[in-house]
Amino acid sequence: MNDGRAADGAAGPTIESLTRRLLDTPGDFLAVPFVEQHGTINVAAVVSDLLMAYGGPSFDTTTAQPFRPAASATARNELSCVLVATWLLHDPWFVGHAATAETYRFLATGLQALAAHVPAAQLVSDPERREELARLTLAALGLVPSGETPAAAADRLATLDSVERARVVAATAEAERRAEAVRQAMHDKAAAEAAAKASRE
Question: Is this structure's pTM higher than 0.85?
Answer without folding.
Answer: no
